[in-house]
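Figure S7 source data.
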Amino acid sequence: MSNYHIKGLEEYYQVYRKSVENPELFWEEIAEENFIWRKRWDTVLEWDFEKPEVKWFEGAQLNITENCLDRHLYHRGDKTAILFEPNDPKDPAEHITYKELHKRVCKFANVLKDKGIKRGDRVCIYVPMIPELIVSMLACARIGAVHSVVFAGFSSAALRTRINDASCKMVITSDGSFRGSKTIDLKGIVDEACKETPSVDSVLVVKRIRSEVHMEDGRDHWVAPLLEKASIDCPAETMEAEDPLFILYTSGSTGMPKGMLHTTAGYMIYSSYTFKNVFQYREEDVYWCSADIGWITGHSYIAYGPLANGATSVLFEGVPNFPDWGRFWEVIDKHKVNQFFTAPTAIRALAKEDLSHVMKHDLSSLKVLGTVGEPINEEAWHWYNNNIGKKNCPIVDSYFQTENGGIMLSPIAYATPTIPTYATLPIPGIQTCLMDEEGNEIKGNQVSGRLCIKFPWPSIARTIWGDHKRYKDTYFSTFKGKYFTGDGALRNETGYYRITGRVDDVIIVSGHNLGTAPIEDAINEHPDVAESAIVGFPHDIKGNALYGYVTLKEAGKQRNPDTVRKEINQLITENIGAIAKLEKIQFTNGLPKTRSGKIMRRILRKIATGEGDNLGDISTLLNPEVVEAVKQGNQLM
Ligand code: WT7
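Tokens for the predicted WT7 complex:
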């Protein structure tokens, strides 16, 4: 078992070495000793990054829900699996035991079957952070259906695109959701989305806020009465190791989101292994990840990873500032949380508030703190370390992507000495390298370059749903034979990595991965807009915020600029969601372009970040004269 649970730095280096020298043996031992299989594999790994194709544990059969639920029933049946903390602290928390979760998943799975869902069918889940979200994901996995969770903050248009891309047969949603003092009409958003979703036969509706909603005859069903009638007996479907488990969308460099497809065995092994090690989870611990399950962090580190380890995982419906800015600390105190995992953007927002919100609560149960989703700045790191961890809790700055399925680089708590802003070392099995722009590997330390992975790990996404060519082009074509993350990184003198940020058209805003293309598409829908370009610029709380350069048509130039700005942000909210709204909108008379007509974002980025005097040679542009005008416009922002 020592392979599975690393307890010190020396052990980490030993295990890492083994994982690189003989990756197949390494993962095989982990698979053998820590999971239950219906049939053993024939081969551990087959791969070819040229095709690209990756297959782990071919020939093996299993069901991930047996690993997350059934096998815990005997030893941990009465242990809390999901500790649900509702939006309003006046409402009671709910302790859902492994026995109870198993029962609820089986019943839900029978409802899915009853509504015609079969192995391989796609089910879209658009549900807030309530137990039914996890229950419905596991219910899909139980019967071999593929879940596609869409973050319940996305707009109806974004939801529709995702439902149609995967031809989902069913949508699971709720009447609405609570968000601090507000409620959100989720069912209304689903109704709007489902006006043009030919593949959807049925919509299951969970009651949460008890609002009046429209129920479409023959299509929509309240879940509660169906669950009441459903049997608690639902044998788990026998799945192949490489059968699809879920699709999760992430943004890319075109308007179409990328449906990353994760498969069963490899994802299970890797999410479980990283959870146990990064957080040093122990049997009696209460663990809390405050991310939304609509993102990969929630899939791997609220649901699958913790449950595969028989952990107690807190599911928090609320927001950090309701009823006040002490809410996170109150939850930690109330449930005696041992490991707390959140996003740098939340830490920066919390650090701006009065420390009395922290001081009111006893945080002495904490052993490990984590951050994920974006680079953490030094100031936020120290605030977290001093005020939350009281300098007693290692901070695991963990780096990964939707495409990766699980944490790729991170300190192992209590094993890896931490340095602020460093994601430190690769997880065993992750063969990182840095590449230069010419495609050569940069060896040695104290260097920086583009972060790539040389060898497959078990939870790498296997394809982009319906578009294998895009999968190849996006991840395996920039550097031959390597997976390219799209991030820049530096490696310091001791081999620690620090992620420096995206080197492509993706901007991370408040930990949300936003592509510039879909936002520009939304803006360009405005009848007065001629063209637009989005760049990121540094923001105190959000990490990055969005800066839009917009050229208006003649008619638009006559209108009140603030009205047009509002309309543009409204269009973005409708097409993508409020998370993608622009912080600043500068109207321009033209955008700098290359001779081939490509907008030079590099120049726009520099202007937006106040480095407009340092643009380098712009004489090769198609229209160098616009640059001065854009710079002047920026001064007025
Ligand atoms: C992008 C992936 C990890 C799940 C949530 C985001 C950035 C992620 C870190 C970190 C610096 C980070 C990268 C990456 N990122 N974690 N610890 N330090 N940057 O998943 O939406 O797929 O976004 O988030 O730029 O490529 P995602």
